Protein backbone atom coordinates (compact mmCIF):
# COMPACT_ATOMS: atom_id res chain seq x y z
CA UNK A 1 0.00 0.00 0.00
CA UNK A 2 1.55 3.31 -1.04
CA UNK A 3 1.66 6.45 1.08
CA UNK A 4 -1.03 9.08 0.38
CA UNK A 5 1.58 11.81 -0.23
CA UNK A 6 5.01 11.53 -1.98
CA UNK A 7 7.95 11.49 0.43
CA UNK A 8 10.88 13.78 -0.16
CA UNK A 9 14.01 11.81 0.78
CA UNK A 10 16.07 14.96 1.32
CA UNK A 11 13.89 16.04 4.28
CA UNK A 12 13.53 14.39 7.59
CA UNK A 13 10.28 13.00 8.80
CA UNK A 14 10.03 15.43 11.73
CA UNK A 15 10.63 18.64 9.80
CA UNK A 16 7.05 19.12 8.52
CA UNK A 17 8.20 22.08 6.50
CA UNK A 18 5.55 24.18 4.85
CA UNK A 19 2.72 23.40 7.32
CA UNK A 20 0.98 25.97 9.45
CA UNK A 21 -1.49 25.72 12.29
CA UNK A 22 -4.92 24.57 11.17
CA UNK A 23 -6.63 27.49 12.91
CA UNK A 24 -4.28 30.12 11.54
CA UNK A 25 -5.97 33.01 9.71
CA UNK A 26 -5.80 33.24 6.02
CA UNK A 27 -5.61 30.53 3.49
CA UNK A 28 -3.74 27.31 3.72
CA UNK A 29 -0.51 27.27 1.73
CA UNK A 30 0.16 24.62 -0.77
CA UNK A 31 1.83 21.54 0.56
CA UNK A 32 5.27 21.12 -0.80
CA UNK A 33 5.83 18.18 -2.95
CA UNK A 34 2.12 17.42 -3.25
CA UNK A 35 1.09 16.89 -6.80
CA UNK A 36 -2.03 14.86 -6.35
CA UNK A 37 -2.65 11.32 -7.16
CA UNK A 38 -2.69 10.36 -10.78
CA UNK A 39 -6.18 10.15 -12.24
CA UNK A 40 -7.77 11.99 -9.32
CA UNK A 41 -9.27 15.44 -9.64
CA UNK A 42 -10.90 17.42 -6.89
CA UNK A 43 -13.26 20.03 -8.34
CA UNK A 44 -13.35 23.22 -6.38
CA UNK A 45 -9.82 22.79 -4.93
CA UNK A 46 -7.42 25.64 -5.69
CA UNK A 47 -3.91 25.08 -4.37
CA UNK A 48 -3.09 28.80 -4.66
CA UNK A 49 -6.25 30.24 -3.11
CA UNK A 50 -8.92 29.62 -0.48
CA UNK A 51 -11.38 26.82 -0.67
CA UNK A 52 -14.57 27.78 -2.47
CA UNK A 53 -17.62 28.08 -0.32
CA UNK A 54 -19.61 24.90 -0.58
CA UNK A 55 -23.40 24.99 -0.43
CA UNK A 56 -24.80 24.06 2.94
CA UNK A 57 -26.98 20.96 3.13
CA UNK A 58 -30.30 21.57 4.94
CA UNK A 59 -30.29 20.32 8.48
CA UNK A 60 -26.46 19.97 8.73
CA UNK A 61 -24.20 22.72 10.15
CA UNK A 62 -21.18 23.92 8.32
CA UNK A 63 -20.06 23.38 4.80
CA UNK A 64 -20.71 20.19 2.97
CA UNK A 65 -20.61 18.86 -0.49
CA UNK A 66 -23.38 20.08 -2.75
CA UNK A 67 -26.59 18.10 -2.50
CA UNK A 68 -27.58 16.99 -5.91
CA UNK A 69 -31.27 16.51 -6.63
CA UNK A 70 -32.37 12.95 -7.21
CA UNK A 71 -32.40 11.90 -10.81
CA UNK A 72 -35.77 11.92 -12.49
CA UNK A 73 -37.76 8.75 -12.41
CA UNK A 74 -37.14 6.59 -15.38
CA UNK A 75 -38.48 3.26 -16.34
CA UNK A 76 -36.32 0.36 -15.31
CA UNK A 77 -35.66 -2.57 -17.46
CA UNK A 78 -38.58 -4.94 -17.26
CA UNK A 79 -40.88 -2.36 -15.70
CA UNK A 80 -42.83 -0.07 -17.96
CA UNK A 81 -43.44 3.37 -16.43
CA UNK A 82 -45.35 4.12 -13.29
CA UNK A 83 -48.40 2.09 -12.41
CA UNK A 84 -51.49 3.45 -14.06
CA UNK A 85 -54.56 4.75 -12.23
CA UNK A 86 -56.51 2.32 -10.17
CA UNK A 87 -59.61 0.82 -11.64
CA UNK A 88 -62.85 2.56 -10.76
CA UNK A 89 -64.63 0.87 -7.86
CA UNK A 90 -67.69 -1.15 -8.74
CA UNK A 91 -70.86 0.10 -7.06
CA UNK A 92 -73.34 -2.52 -6.02
CA UNK A 93 -76.65 -0.72 -6.23
CA UNK A 94 -78.64 -3.62 -4.82
CA UNK A 95 -76.82 -3.80 -1.49
CA UNK A 96 -76.52 -0.07 -0.87
CA UNK A 97 -72.94 -0.35 0.44
CA UNK A 98 -69.84 1.72 -0.06
CA UNK A 99 -67.57 0.47 -2.86
CA UNK A 100 -64.21 -0.84 -1.75
CA UNK A 101 -61.00 -1.36 -3.68
CA UNK A 102 -59.52 -4.81 -3.94
CA UNK A 103 -56.04 -4.25 -5.36
CA UNK A 104 -56.52 -2.61 -8.73
CA UNK A 105 -59.99 -4.02 -9.25
CA UNK A 106 -63.23 -3.15 -7.49
CA UNK A 107 -65.32 -5.88 -5.97
CA UNK A 108 -68.53 -6.74 -7.70
CA UNK A 109 -70.24 -7.60 -4.43
CA UNK A 110 -69.33 -5.97 -1.14
CA UNK A 111 -69.57 -8.12 1.98
CA UNK A 112 -71.72 -6.34 4.52
CA UNK A 113 -69.40 -7.18 7.40
CA UNK A 114 -66.41 -5.40 5.80
CA UNK A 115 -67.72 -1.87 5.35
CA UNK A 116 -70.22 0.30 7.22
CA UNK A 117 -73.66 0.02 5.72
CA UNK A 118 -74.58 3.63 5.00
CA UNK A 119 -77.97 3.09 3.42
CA UNK A 120 -78.72 -0.29 4.96
CA UNK A 121 -80.20 1.27 8.10
CA UNK A 122 -82.91 3.12 6.21
CA UNK A 123 -83.65 0.09 4.06
CA UNK A 124 -83.77 -2.08 7.16
CA UNK A 125 -86.17 0.33 8.88
CA UNK A 126 -88.52 0.21 5.91
CA UNK A 127 -88.44 -3.59 5.86
CA UNK A 128 -89.19 -3.73 9.59
CA UNK A 129 -92.01 -1.20 9.20
CA UNK A 130 -93.55 -3.15 6.32
CA UNK A 131 -93.39 -6.38 8.31
CA UNK A 132 -95.02 -4.59 11.25
CA UNK A 133 -97.86 -3.30 9.05
CA UNK A 134 -98.46 -6.80 7.66
CA UNK A 135 -98.67 -8.24 11.17
CA UNK A 136 -101.09 -5.55 12.35
CA UNK A 137 -103.48 -5.92 9.43
CA UNK A 138 -103.29 -9.71 9.47
CA UNK A 139 -104.29 -9.76 13.14
CA UNK A 140 -106.97 -7.16 12.42
CA UNK A 141 -108.45 -9.24 9.61
CA UNK A 142 -108.68 -12.27 11.90
CA UNK A 143 -110.38 -10.19 14.59
CA UNK A 144 -112.88 -8.72 12.15
CA UNK A 145 -113.59 -12.15 10.69
CA UNK A 146 -114.38 -13.54 14.15
CA UNK A 147 -116.60 -10.55 14.93
CA UNK A 148 -118.38 -10.82 11.59
CA UNK A 149 -119.11 -14.52 12.14
CA UNK A 150 -120.47 -13.91 15.64
CA UNK A 151 -122.60 -10.96 14.51
CA UNK A 152 -123.92 -13.00 11.60
CA UNK A 153 -124.75 -15.89 13.93
CA UNK A 154 -126.58 -13.63 16.39
CA UNK A 155 -128.44 -11.90 13.56
CA UNK A 156 -129.48 -14.75 11.26
CA UNK A 157 -129.95 -17.61 13.74
CA UNK A 158 -133.24 -17.17 15.57
CA UNK A 159 -132.40 -19.45 18.51
CA UNK A 160 -129.13 -17.66 19.22
CA UNK A 161 -130.81 -14.26 18.84
CA UNK A 162 -133.44 -15.17 21.42
CA UNK A 163 -130.85 -16.62 23.80
CA UNK A 164 -128.70 -13.49 23.91
CA UNK A 165 -131.79 -11.32 24.35
CA UNK A 166 -133.03 -13.32 27.33
CA UNK A 167 -129.66 -13.75 29.05
CA UNK A 168 -128.43 -10.22 29.60
CA UNK A 169 -126.00 -11.38 32.30
CA UNK A 170 -123.79 -12.95 29.60
CA UNK A 171 -123.67 -9.58 27.89
CA UNK A 172 -122.56 -7.78 31.05
CA UNK A 173 -120.05 -10.51 31.86
CA UNK A 174 -118.59 -10.21 28.38
CA UNK A 175 -118.37 -6.44 28.78
CA UNK A 176 -116.45 -6.82 32.05
CA UNK A 177 -114.06 -9.32 30.45
CA UNK A 178 -113.58 -6.91 27.56
CA UNK A 179 -112.70 -4.04 29.90
CA UNK A 180 -110.30 -6.14 32.00
CA UNK A 181 -108.40 -7.54 29.02
CA UNK A 182 -108.34 -4.17 27.27
CA UNK A 183 -106.95 -2.29 30.27
CA UNK A 184 -104.43 -5.06 30.93
CA UNK A 185 -103.02 -5.00 27.40
CA UNK A 186 -103.04 -1.22 27.05
CA UNK A 187 -101.55 -0.39 30.44
CA UNK A 188 -99.08 -3.32 30.75
CA UNK A 189 -96.59 -3.55 27.91
CA UNK A 190 -95.36 -6.95 29.09
CA UNK A 191 -98.84 -8.44 28.71
CA UNK A 192 -99.17 -7.44 25.06
CA UNK A 193 -95.55 -8.21 24.11
CA UNK A 194 -94.82 -11.53 25.78
CA UNK A 195 -95.69 -14.52 23.64
CA UNK A 196 -97.92 -16.57 23.83
CA UNK A 197 -99.76 -14.72 26.58
CA UNK A 198 -100.35 -11.71 24.36
CA UNK A 199 -102.24 -13.75 21.76
CA UNK A 200 -104.24 -15.53 24.45
CA UNK A 201 -105.28 -12.20 25.94
CA UNK A 202 -105.99 -10.85 22.47
CA UNK A 203 -108.22 -13.85 21.70
CA UNK A 204 -110.20 -13.40 24.92
CA UNK A 205 -110.51 -9.68 24.22
CA UNK A 206 -111.75 -10.29 20.67
CA UNK A 207 -114.29 -12.93 21.70
CA UNK A 208 -115.64 -10.75 24.51
CA UNK A 209 -116.07 -7.64 22.35
CA UNK A 210 -117.49 -9.75 19.52
CA UNK A 211 -120.13 -11.12 21.87
CA UNK A 212 -121.01 -7.61 23.03
CA UNK A 213 -121.25 -6.41 19.42
CA UNK A 214 -123.30 -9.43 18.35
CA UNK A 215 -125.68 -8.95 21.27
CA UNK A 216 -126.27 -5.29 20.34
CA UNK A 217 -126.74 -6.23 16.66
CA UNK A 218 -129.31 -8.89 17.60
CA UNK A 219 -131.73 -6.15 18.67
CA UNK A 220 -131.76 -4.60 15.18
CA UNK A 221 -133.34 -5.68 11.96
CA UNK A 222 -131.30 -8.04 9.83
CA UNK A 223 -131.37 -5.82 6.74
CA UNK A 224 -130.18 -2.82 8.75
CA UNK A 225 -127.29 -4.85 10.19
CA UNK A 226 -126.19 -6.00 6.75
CA UNK A 227 -126.41 -2.47 5.35
CA UNK A 228 -124.43 -1.08 8.27
CA UNK A 229 -121.70 -3.69 7.80
CA UNK A 230 -121.36 -2.68 4.15
CA UNK A 231 -121.26 1.05 4.97
CA UNK A 232 -118.70 0.45 7.70
CA UNK A 233 -116.43 -1.48 5.34
CA UNK A 234 -116.63 1.29 2.72
CA UNK A 235 -115.95 4.05 5.27
CA UNK A 236 -113.00 2.20 6.80
CA UNK A 237 -111.48 1.53 3.37
CA UNK A 238 -111.76 5.20 2.36
CA UNK A 239 -110.37 6.37 5.70
CA UNK A 240 -107.38 4.01 5.38
CA UNK A 241 -106.75 5.17 1.82
CA UNK A 242 -106.94 8.82 2.88
CA UNK A 243 -104.66 8.34 5.89
CA UNK A 244 -101.94 6.62 3.85
CA UNK A 245 -102.06 9.01 0.87
CA UNK A 246 -102.53 12.43 2.44
CA UNK A 247 -99.53 14.66 3.13
CA UNK A 248 -101.15 16.16 6.22
CA UNK A 249 -99.78 14.81 9.49
CA UNK A 250 -102.55 13.82 11.91
CA UNK A 251 -100.19 12.21 14.43
CA UNK A 252 -99.80 15.53 16.21
CA UNK A 253 -103.57 15.83 16.83
CA UNK A 254 -103.76 13.32 19.65
CA UNK A 255 -104.47 15.94 22.34
CA UNK A 256 -107.33 17.40 20.31
CA UNK A 257 -108.86 13.97 19.80
CA UNK A 258 -108.61 13.32 23.52
CA UNK A 259 -110.43 16.55 24.31
CA UNK A 260 -113.12 15.69 21.75
CA UNK A 261 -113.51 12.25 23.35
CA UNK A 262 -114.04 13.84 26.78
CA UNK A 263 -116.65 16.18 25.33
CA UNK A 264 -118.49 13.27 23.69
CA UNK A 265 -118.33 11.31 26.95
CA UNK A 266 -120.09 14.10 28.83
CA UNK A 267 -122.53 14.55 25.96
CA UNK A 268 -123.32 10.81 26.08
CA UNK A 269 -124.14 10.98 29.78
CA UNK A 270 -126.53 13.84 29.10
CA UNK A 271 -128.13 11.90 26.21
CA UNK A 272 -128.74 8.87 28.43
CA UNK A 273 -130.73 10.81 31.01
CA UNK A 274 -132.70 12.95 28.54
CA UNK A 275 -134.15 10.03 26.54
CA UNK A 276 -134.29 12.24 23.45
CA UNK A 277 -134.18 10.44 20.10
CA UNK A 278 -132.76 13.47 18.32
CA UNK A 279 -130.08 14.00 20.94
CA UNK A 280 -129.18 10.32 20.85
CA UNK A 281 -128.87 10.43 17.04
CA UNK A 282 -126.57 13.47 17.23
CA UNK A 283 -124.51 11.70 19.84
CA UNK A 284 -124.18 8.59 17.62
CA UNK A 285 -123.14 10.73 14.63
CA UNK A 286 -120.53 12.46 16.79
CA UNK A 287 -119.18 9.08 17.95
CA UNK A 288 -118.93 7.87 14.35
CA UNK A 289 -117.07 11.05 13.34
CA UNK A 290 -114.80 10.90 16.39
CA UNK A 291 -113.70 7.31 15.81
CA UNK A 292 -113.27 8.01 12.11
CA UNK A 293 -110.73 10.67 13.07
CA UNK A 294 -109.18 8.25 15.53
CA UNK A 295 -108.82 5.72 12.72
CA UNK A 296 -106.94 8.26 10.59
CA UNK A 297 -104.69 9.01 13.56
CA UNK A 298 -104.05 5.34 14.38
CA UNK A 299 -103.45 4.40 10.75
CA UNK A 300 -100.76 7.05 10.33
CA UNK A 301 -99.19 5.99 13.62
CA UNK A 302 -98.99 2.41 12.34
CA UNK A 303 -97.83 3.20 8.81
CA UNK A 304 -95.15 5.59 10.08
CA UNK A 305 -93.20 8.26 8.25
CA UNK A 306 -94.85 11.09 10.20
CA UNK A 307 -93.90 13.11 13.27
CA UNK A 308 -95.00 10.32 15.60
CA UNK A 309 -95.17 6.62 14.85
CA UNK A 310 -95.86 3.39 16.67
CA UNK A 311 -93.03 1.10 17.68
CA UNK A 312 -92.61 -1.99 15.44
CA UNK A 313 -92.90 -4.15 18.58
CA UNK A 314 -96.47 -2.95 19.22
CA UNK A 315 -98.29 -5.01 16.59
CA UNK A 316 -100.79 -6.22 19.20
CA UNK A 317 -101.52 -2.70 20.34
CA UNK A 318 -101.85 -1.48 16.76
CA UNK A 319 -104.38 -4.19 15.97
CA UNK A 320 -106.36 -3.42 19.14
CA UNK A 321 -106.76 0.30 18.44
CA UNK A 322 -107.79 -0.23 14.82
CA UNK A 323 -110.22 -2.97 15.83
CA UNK A 324 -111.84 -0.71 18.44
CA UNK A 325 -112.14 2.12 15.91
CA UNK A 326 -113.93 -0.11 13.40
CA UNK A 327 -116.27 -1.68 15.97
CA UNK A 328 -117.24 1.71 17.41
CA UNK A 329 -117.91 3.10 13.94
CA UNK A 330 -120.13 0.09 13.23
CA UNK A 331 -122.10 0.45 16.47
CA UNK A 332 -122.51 4.21 15.98
CA UNK A 333 -123.79 3.78 12.42
CA UNK A 334 -126.05 0.96 13.57
CA UNK A 335 -127.70 3.22 16.12
CA UNK A 336 -128.20 5.92 13.47
CA UNK A 337 -129.63 3.76 10.69
CA UNK A 338 -131.13 0.97 12.69
CA UNK A 339 -134.62 0.32 13.95
CA UNK A 340 -134.98 -2.00 16.90
CA UNK A 341 -137.08 -5.16 16.57
Automatic annotation (TrEMBL):
Membrane topology designation: Multi-pass membrane protein
Protein name: Uncharacterized protein
CDD domains: LFG_like (cd10428)
Localization per record: Membrane
Species this chain originates from: Scylla paramamosain (Mud crab)
Superkingdom: Eukaryota
A single BP term in Gene Ontology: negative regulation of apoptotic signaling pathway
Single GO cellular component term: endoplasmic reticulum
Main location: membrane
Keywords on record: Membrane, Transmembrane, Transmembrane helix
Signal peptide: none
Ranges where the record places region Disordered: 1-56
Family, similarity comment: Belongs to the BI1 family.
Pfam families the UniProt entry points to: Bax1-I (PF01027)
Regions crossing the membrane: 136-157, 169-187, 199-218, 224-243, 255-274, 280-297, 317-338
